[in-house]
Amino acid sequence: MKKLCLLLMIMVASLVAIAQETGTVAEQGEMVRKRTKLCFLSGTEKVVIPEAELMQLLDEEAYDTYCSGRRLFKLGTGLKYGGYTAFAVGLGVGALGVHYMRTSESDPYWEDDRFNTGGRLFMLGILSFIYGNGMIPTGYILRGIGAGKISRIADEYNQNNQNTAVSYRFSPSIMPVNVPQSQGNVAYGMTFSINF
């Protein structure tokens, strides 16, 4: 049994090494998106296309769409992180406001001033919390629209230039099994997938 486990471990380790070495096989010149940039695939590497070369490769309308997609993606990223910041600040300021209001209940000397300050801080925290919750999904939506525009430009370029990519991947797989006769509760295998 120990030998079988050792053999399986060696086989899984070698398959993982093969899976890391294999990648995308493409014709030279296929265009793909990498965040906000367009790249050419060169073997398994993505080579970023400089802006000057991109302006020559794309027509004016496609380049404008590409620039619009980049702006939307970057705006969405800013809104997303700004929303997370506003969310966190809202929680902190709201908690500070609650603390001030609770302190004012136990100390009658500071009651008027602290209650007003605590109430204002609490309301500011609530507004910041709501503002952040609105910014986060808006940011994700704008990022998706921008990424879609950039991907669409790459797809149109590849269609016009008859560039097609074929990717393949080997990877080990471990699946849970609920068979009473089996000695273990997992099954080992290998996954091979081809995308084109």
Task: List the topology elements.
Layout: H1 2-21, E1 24-26, E2 31-34, E3 37-42, E4 45-48, H2 51-57, H3 60-106, H4 111-160, E5 165-176, E6 186-195
Antiparallel strand pairs: 1-5, 2-3, 3-4, 5-6
Describe the structure.
- Mean pLDDT is 77; it is low at 15-28.
- This protein has a domain at 60-150.
- The protein has a three-stranded antiparallel beta sheet.
- Helices cover 63% and strands 20% of the residues.
- The longest helix is centred in the last third of the chain and has 50 residues, at 111-160.
- A hairpin with a 2-residue loop joins strand 3 (37-42) and strand 4 (45-48).
- It has four helices and six strands, in the order αββββαααββ.
- It has 196 residues and is α+β, with helices and mostly antiparallel strands.
- The chain is flat.
Helical residue percent? 55-70%
Number of strands: 6
Name the overall outline: flat
What structural class do helix, strand and pairing data support? alpha+beta
Low-confidence stretches: 15-28
User: How many H/I helical runs?
Assistant: 4
Strand content: 15-25%
Enumerate the strands of the largest sheet in spatial order, edge to edge or round the barrel: 1-5-6
> Distance N terminus to C terminus?
41 Å
Main sheet summary: 3 strands, antiparallel
Q: Could you spell the SSE succession in H and E letters?
A: HEEEEHHHEE
Radius of gyration (CA) equals 28 Å
What's the average pLDDT? 77
